[in-house]
Amino acid sequence: MDQVVVYTSPTCGYCVQAKVFLKENGVTYVERDVSVDREAQKALQDMGAEGVPVIVVGLEIIRGFDKARLEILFGKLIIECPKCRQKLRLPRNKGTLKVTCKACQEIFKVDSNRL
Length: 115
Hints:
Elements: E1 4-8, H1 13-24, E2 30-33, H2 38-46, E3 54-57, E4 60-63, H3 67-74, E5 76-80, E6 87-91, E7 96-100, E8 107-111
Parallel strand pairs: 1-2
Antiparallel strand pairs: 1-3, 3-4, 5-6, 7-8
């Protein structure tokens, strides 16, 4: 897995949420506090970011706490029910899953290894 770097500040609530999400999903990361780390401040400016959190995964830069994007990268799959289009979150890499949509009760199968 690519190295994950999280640019934060101690007063940022979204930074806390991002770090909790990463910990809950078993993602190891390096935290860089822009309030005290001049190099981190410079790196943030070079990325064109104006605030925190900024999460860097390899070459990908995620500005803000974008939970849906992080779930795609580290957590769960986000799919749509084929009948009602309700968004559902499923675990990754668990083979073929039998899914029941909570909204419409449609039952369908999803290969969680391929998505």
